[in-house]
């Protein structure tokens, strides 16, 4: 498996033989199966694959909220879920977690107080809130009620909350779903700004393959497995494709053909 990490610089996320089961009791089933991959630091890695392939489950495992995880999963040098990681990771789930009856700034003040409580930290909190609002380009809407914002603006408030603690790793679960093309482009520009100006690592999921072209690195998933880890360029070249989507489909066809071959008895394959 390809690793784009510069030598000597440990990956932001390192997984080996990583499996996850979901469900309860007798319904427990394997949804991630023996994954091995690295997420390089300071870059945008896109986690792409069809609905239900396990992207959210993998993200939950990385941020430490997923049960029944086995194998190796190291995040920023610590095992996933380690308390030391809490302030070093920003996580945005699919449902924007903002309070509609608070303004943008009040939402951020609230989450900042949870992250960095106490009177002594008041100035630091105020600076962090202003910076996060600026980062997501919502300064002109800071006094607006979150409930009155557009979908894209609400997504940006969630992202601002995740940026509050100046996280080294941002895990974003389908942040552009349901957004129009202009808002999607603006958010992707913002992700690139965040990696450039803060040196942060971003792991971002999507089931829209054209978003793959905007990532530095790709993890392509299918049915609970990693199909490929590559840069968009390398993937297109390797699969003789003009788009990542075409390359992904070629890899799926290849995997299906291999699985069909493996299922044949020696007599059938003769
Ligand atoms: N709470 C749950 N209990 C049992 N199985 C679950 C649960 N949540 C998800 N699954 C199963 O785990 C598998 C992976 O789901 P997951 O949500 O991680 O996929 P996904 O790629 O993020 O999908 P989407 O793009 O639709 O969000 C699916 O087969 C799903 O049915």
TrEMBL record:
Database matches in Pfam families: ABC_tran
PANTHER family xref list: ABC TRANSPORTER G FAMILY MEMBER 20 ISOFORM X1 (PTHR43038:SF3), ATP-BINDING CASSETTE, SUB-FAMILY H, MEMBER 1 (PTHR43038)
Highest taxon of source: Bacteria
ABC transporter domain span: 13-248
The protein's name in its UniProt record: ABC-2 type transport system ATP-binding protein
UniProt keyword Ribosomal protein present: no
CDD domains registered for this protein in UniProt: ABC_DR_subfamily_A
Keywords in alphabetical order: ATP-binding, Nucleotide-binding
PROSITE patterns assigned to the protein according to its UniProt record, in alphabetical order: ABC_TRANSPORTER_1 (PS00211), ABC_TRANSPORTER_2 (PS50893)
Single GO molecular function: ATP binding
């Amino acid at each position: 498996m390809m690793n784009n990490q510069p030598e000597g610089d440990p990956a932001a996320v390192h997984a080996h033989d990583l499996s996850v089961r979901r469900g309860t009791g007798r319904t427990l089933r394997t949804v991630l199966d023996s994954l091995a991959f690295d997420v390089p630091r300071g870059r945008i890695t896109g986690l792409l694959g069809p609905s239900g392939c396990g992207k959210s489950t993998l993200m939950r495992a990385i941020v430490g909220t997923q049960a029944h995880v086995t194998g190796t999963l190291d995040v920023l040098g610590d095992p996933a879920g380690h308390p030391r990681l809490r302030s070093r990771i920003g996580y945005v789930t699919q449902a924007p977690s903002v309070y509609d009856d608070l303004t943008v700034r009040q939402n951020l003040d609230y989450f900042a107080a949870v992250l960095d409580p106490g009177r002594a930290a008041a100035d630091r909190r105020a600076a962090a809130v202003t910076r996060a609002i600026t980062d997501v380009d919502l300064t002109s809407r800071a006094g607006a009620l979150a409930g009155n914002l557009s979908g894209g603006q609400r997504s940006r408030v969630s992202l601002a909350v995740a940026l509050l603690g100046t996280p080294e790793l941002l895990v974003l679960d389908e942040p552009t779903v349901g957004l129009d093309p202009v808002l999607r482009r603006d958010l992707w520009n913002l992700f690139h700004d965040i990696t450039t100006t803060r040196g942060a690592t971003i792991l971002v999921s999507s089931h829209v393959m054209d978003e793959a072209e905007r990532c530095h690195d790709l993890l392509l998933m299918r049915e609970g497995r990693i199909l490929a880890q590559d840069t968009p360029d390398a993937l297109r070249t390797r699969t003789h494709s003009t788009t990542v989507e075409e390359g992904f489909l070629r890899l799926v066809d290849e995997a299906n053909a291999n699985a069909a071959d493996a299922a044949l008895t020696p007599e059938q394959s003769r």
